[in-house]
Each structure stands twice: as structure tokens, then as C-alpha cells.
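Worked example 3. Consider a protein that binds uracil.
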Amino acid sequence: MSNVIEMTHPLIQHKITRLRDKNTGTAEFSSLVEEIAMLMGYEALKDLPLEEIEIETPIETCKSPVIAGKKLAIVPILRAGLGMVSGVQALVPTAKIGHIGLYRDEVTHIPHEYYCKLPNPISERLIVVTDPMLATGGSAIAAVDFIKQHGGKKIKFMAIIAAPEGLKKLQEAHPDIQIYVGHIDRELNENAYICPGLGDAGDRIFGTK
Ligand SMILES: O=P(O)(O)OC[C@H]1O[C@H](OP(=O)(O)OP(=O)(O)O)[C@H](O)[C@@H]1O
Ligand SMILES: O=c1cc[nH]c(=O)[nH]1
Ligand SMILES: [Mg+2]
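Given these inputs, the predicted complex is written out as C-alpha cells:
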């Protein structure tokens, strides 16, 4: 799984355990999602290209590196992916933000699109797609399909928890993207929920259940 990078940092693992706990309430849950996204973003963005510019320090003129190229785009899959935006945005405050609205049908588990607005043009930007949960992979595949249809080429996908089944499908559908996951869990259950997982991420972030 060479294009899948699973996080090993102890802080991320600790925070994921807090997320899994059913007694963790909405305020702590959404803060943890933001913090994990920032820590994962630090890892996912470590190959950002640099260019040297000339600046003046109080002492002398020198050349020093800055991030090169077009501004990054962060694209959350609504709703739950929204909870990860501020964490990545804290690292790259100039990032443009797109949105893709998808919900999973409760019976068929097939994703349905209800919204899509991306920065335009998108073809030259690095695009970081965020969604805490990668279950069957249907939502992730549909989101990357949309981004590619709009011209997106350089895509990284960030999920906090992934099921092996969905990860495999996403890799097969989009072998050219890099996938960053906080933890790969055991399996999906009969309702396509991740086990052990953390329940419904959107409901826990926004307090809707
Ligand atoms: O890999 P999949 O099987 O497609 O499942 C994962 C999707 O399910 C959840 O969203 P949900 O449909 O619950 O929408 P929400 O974020 O609005 O709660 C989650 O945030 C992912 O987007
Ligand atoms: O376990 C799961 C699966 C899909 N969506 C979630 O929020 N949790
Ligand atoms: Mg949900």
C-alpha cells in the first residue's frame, strides 16, 4: 500500500483513542478532530515545493525558502470533513476552501451529491480532501471523481479512520492519489459502519444525535 500513509505519531494515536470513547462529548470531539487534522496535515504537507526568495533580516540580506506555486486547496466532504478544515488551514492560512456535499444513503450506503463548489481554476493546485471517515470508500471515490472532472490533478486524501475495504477500493479507483490515514481499523459491519470506529463522525462533531 505504497500510496497509503498511516500515522504513527503517539499524539495522533492518543487523540484517536479519545475520539473513539463514546463518553467524549461534542466540544472535545470537535477539538480533537481539528487537532488531529493539524497533526496529519503537518505530515501530509511535508513534500510541499519550496522556492528561495531574497529578504532583508535586521542584520543583512539573505535568500530563504517559501512555499512555491499556486495556493493549496482544502476540500472537505460535507458534513464531517468540515471539522478537519480549521486544523489544516492553521498550517496554510492562505489555502482556498472548496466544498463537496455528499451523504450516504442509510440503506444502500451509496453517496448522493448535494453540493459542489471548488476554487477555479483548480488544475495547478495541490488539493487536500478531508473526511474523518473512509468506510466503503464510496464518498471518497465520488469526491475525487468530481475534483478530477473539474480538472484537479494533484490530490491528497486525509481520513482519520479508514476501513480496509474502503481503502482498497479508493486505491483501485484512484491509484494516483496519496491517502493519509490516522488509523486503519478492522472491518465494516453489516450497516457499513467502521469497527471499532468512533460511530457517526458528522453527528458527533455537530452534536446532532
Ligand atoms: O466511505 P463511505 O461508505 O462513503 O462512508 C463515509 C462517509 O460517511 C460519512 O458521511 P455521512 O454520509 O454520514 O454524512 P455526514 O458527514 O453529513 O454525516 C463520512 O463522513 C463519510 O463522508
Ligand atoms: O463508521 C462510520 C461509517 C461512515 N460514516 C461514519 O461517520 N462512521
Ligand atoms: Mg454522518
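Take a moment to read the result before moving on. Residues 80, 133, 135, 193-194, 197, 200-202 surround uracil (ligand 2) (CB under 6 Å). The chain is about 30% helix and 30% strand.
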